[in-house]
């Protein structure tokens, strides 16, 4: 797969070329899963959430590519904070999909993608920092 990554966006909020390219690969996997299951599940609630996950991931990648260098870290940190609220809904939808045994493999794949994106974006560290700031006040 060809990367449209620019050198200027290599190190932002802990991103490096490997993490950035992995986000692109995850977006491609989401695209393939959406394409594969579009007709069968297009009206399902979980599918709408899965589509939103893919859309938000593509938006984040585009944002990393196009953000102005001087504002990049602050703006990307803001986007990542938005993701921490989205991830809860997506995790719940994936868990519900797993509970429906017929489609558990799709749910497990989605949870794996969510876990990897969470790791790349360091969402757990962000939650820990936010909660420690709240308890300090």
Write the layout of secondary structure elements.
Blueprint: H1 17-41, H2 45-66, H3 72-99, H4 104-121, H5 123-136
Care to describe what's here?
GO terms for molecular function: rRNA primary transcript binding. Residues 32-116 form the RNase MRP protein 1 RNA binding domain. InterPro entries: RMP1_RBD. Pfam families: RMP1. This is RNase MRP protein 1 RNA binding domain-containing protein. With 137 residues, the protein is mainly α. The protein has one domain (10-136). Helices cover 78% and strands 0% of the residues. It has five helices and no strands. It has helices spanning 17-41, 45-66, 72-99, 104-121, 123-136. Helix 3 (72-99) runs antiparallel to helix 4. It is globular. The relative contact order is 0.13. The model is unreliable at 1-12 (pLDDT under 50).
């Amino acid at each position: 797969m060809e990367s449209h990554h620019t050198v200027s966006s290599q190190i932002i909020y802990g991103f490096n070329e490997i993490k950035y390219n992995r986000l692109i690969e995850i977006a491609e996997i989401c695209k393939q899963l959406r394409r594969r299951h579009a007709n069968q599940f297009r009206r399902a609630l979980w599918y709408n959430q899965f589509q939103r996950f893919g859309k938000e991931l593509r938006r984040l990648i585009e944002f990393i590519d196009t953000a102005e260098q001087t504002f990049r870290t602050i703006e990307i940190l803001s986007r990542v904070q938005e993701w921490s609220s989205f991830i809860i809904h997506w995790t719940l939808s994936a868990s519900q999909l797993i509970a429906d045994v017929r489609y558990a493999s799709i749910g497990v794949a989605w949870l794996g993608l969510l876990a990897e994106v969470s790791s790349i974006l360091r969402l757990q560290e962000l939650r820990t920092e936010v909660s420690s700031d709240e308890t300090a006040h």
